[in-house]
Amino acid sequence: MSTTTGKIKSRWADDETDAALEAQAKKEREEKKRQKAEKARKLEEEKRAREAEAAASARQAAPQQGDDDTNPNSEPPSKRRRISPERETGPPGRAAGVDSSSSGTTLLRLGGARGAFGPCRSVENYDKLNDIEEGAYGWVARAKELKTGNVVALKRLKIDPKDRSGLPVTGLREIQILKDCSHRNVVKLREVVVGEDTSKIENIFLVLEFLEHDLKGILEDMPEPFLASEVKTLLLQLASGVAYLHGNYILHRDLKTSNLLLNNRGQLKIADFGMARYVGDPPPKLTQLVVTLWYRAPELLLGAARYGAAVDMWSVGCIFGELLTREPLLQGKNEVDELTKIFELCGIPTDESWPGFRRLPNARALRLPKIPAANGSVVRAKFPLLTAAGVALLNDLLALDPAKRPAAEAMLAHEYFKQDPKPKQEAMFPTFPSKAGQERRRRQKTPNAPVRGQAADPLGAVDFSGIFSGREKEERGGGFSLRMV
Amino acid sequence: MSHMTNTLATPEQLYQRRSYSSLPPDLQDAILFATQCLTQAAGVLLQLPQSVTAQANVVLARYWLVEPLMGYEFSDVSAASVFLVAKLGPTPRSPRDIANVYAYLRSSSSTLFRSPAAPSPSPPPANNPNSYYLSETAYQAAHSRILAIEERLLYALGFDTHVSLPYPLAITYLKTMDFLGLRVETVARRVVEYLNTALLSPQMLYLTCQPNELAVAAIYNAARDIGAKMPECEWWEVFDVDREVLGFLVVGMRSVEGWAAKMRDDIPAMAKRMITRKDIEDDMACRGQPLGRNGYGADASVPDLEADMARQMDDQIAELEKSSHGFA
């Protein structure tokens, strides 16, 4: 493929004089190609003839004229053909996955999955249960669809009626991207609904699938950090979602624990695509004002106008660190402080570790210590309990040079996920009380005092041998550990 | 795969548009064609890439399958779709630029809808800047209309603005082909011309066929036009297009030019300038089927303040005229 592309590209770019030079060689090549094509055509014809024989009985009604049928001169213009609903019963299988065309070949039916377009439904189809959050992101509530009883999250698009540039482009992008996405680790947009009064569209709600938790809330509340196996499961799911997004030319640009949702079945989903956008390859010039400060990659802080998927991978690295410690990894107070914290953790960039970083707009004003010898990465020291493979992955994700960070797809195959302890099965994930679902926190550590006068329950014969099996093999937070500096 | 495909119109939508509209099919087609031409012209003047303008064309056509044609002024719907699509892409355009461009295109100075096929080409209209001067009030009003229709567009399309275009596919397909002795540029140019023309088609080809089908049909037509010999096998199947669809598209793409010429003859308002709702009402009145009061027919359930205001003023003027001339 690459050779043909190259050749044709040059053919497109060449002007006549260049073409003359190449004419001789080209002629020969084309002659060869023609012979080859001729051969292939003959083969194809033979094959078709055989197929035709086989399928002859099945398609007696089908026209046999071959190419002539597509000749506009011999076919009466079928102008109004497509506007009658007969079409549904007319050309068979058009809506279905496979079409039985006249030659009996199976053609790929593109676009069968996309539904029809039509007006939005009303928000009155949903019954609000409770508010989840109200803040910078707008208003989110838990609601129930009246017809089905399905519980969903309603997210209201923030609209400023005084804004004379119309509906916010970030909100529209979020809707479009979510509509295009379909992956188990990306939150699903069921539909967009509007307020009852459709003469003036003032209220726009995204109907999203409801998940009980966000990762930030869990990390804040949990008394002990996630087990290593749990961290792996979460990280794998995150990487798999991010790989899907990047594979579809989407940059999320605001990955952080509060934008990662988790349900009670251990499933993680990426949410909040307010900063996301489609990008080409190579990426176009983009704004640097993206990603919450604590998760913002150094190239963004240094003002790079062209950046790519690596900014999301930096955020993934920050999230990795946060999953291990329950604390955001790099809590800078402002851009400068954030950079300082990054350099403290990952070392001072040098021309070797990050070629070309000095050319970034904000790097010129940067005054770095002259001798960076002692300023390597201190990730190893900061995470003494992490395995060597884990440290390697974290170090890769937090590479200052964006070109050195692994792609999400590559991350999925990392050694860290293959080592023991293996990633925990999602179904085996612990559950947490859901704030969004208005579940009260159960204080599991202090059971109620026994009521006076009650007889003690006889335990009987219970086998406890299995309940902690496997768990003691894993590293746990707190307690005793060796420092590795 | 979803990147390369489009949501297509359902047979019901196509049928309803034809059968339940208050307008006869020829006027519906004329309005669609004129508005698509206007959108293309605006795209050129706004220096938008054709990929953006073409998406606006498709969004506009989809909108009119869902909502009645007479709901808003045609040029306003066109302006709003250009505004919306440009905003979502990498080349946003300000409402002021858009309002200015549309003011020009609608003015008497614009050459857009001058009949090109007139036997003696009429002299181009004098450039009279006053005819497209947009006062601040007029601009504010145009701006408000664009924003109102933008919301309406999004609502009617369920906020799905994804449009996949056949141009990149057509180029990719062309690269897999070998046009012996012919410059690929010649073929490619013709292919793009066919794809552009198809955007204007009253058959709404972009709403009934997938991009790969449009691309193959355009290549077929282009190859025929320049006399390239095509393989004798059913080569379109390589690109997942069946012969029936190809035949329909080939005819559909080729028929636009002749249809447009005939339509200009049949509907005189078309050959002068961008048609307006007023033109359509007049035309309907001439045909003896005046559009309902308040209504633009049975399907106009959309209250439109601008239009109401305009209609009230029309009514007042009509009443004044009635009282002065004394005819019923």
UniProtKB/TrEMBL annotation, chain A:
Start and end residues of each stretch annotated as Disordered: 1-107, 423-458
SUPFAM superfamilies listed in its UniProt record: Protein kinase-like (PK-like) (SSF56112)
Enzyme class: transferase
Protein name: cyclin-dependent kinase
UniProt lineage: Eukaryota, Fungi, Dikarya, Ascomycota, Pezizomycotina
Any one GO MF annotation of this record: ATP binding
Species this protein is from: Lasiosphaeria miniovina
Database matches in InterPro entries: CDK, Kinase-like_dom_sf, Prot_kinase_dom, Ser/Thr_kinase_AS
Claim: Signal is one of the keywords in the record: no
EC number: 2.7.11.22
One GO cellular component term noted in the UniProt record for this chain: nucleus
TrEMBL record, chain B:
Matching InterPro entries: Cyclin-like_sf, Cyclin/Ssn8
Superkingdom of the organism of origin: Eukaryota
A single MF term (Gene Ontology): cyclin-dependent protein serine/threonine kinase regulator activity
GO biological process: regulation of transcription by RNA polymerase II
PANTHER family per UniProt: CYCLIN (PTHR10026)
Protein name, per record: Cyclin-like protein
Lineage: Eukaryota, Fungi, Dikarya, Ascomycota, Pezizomycotina
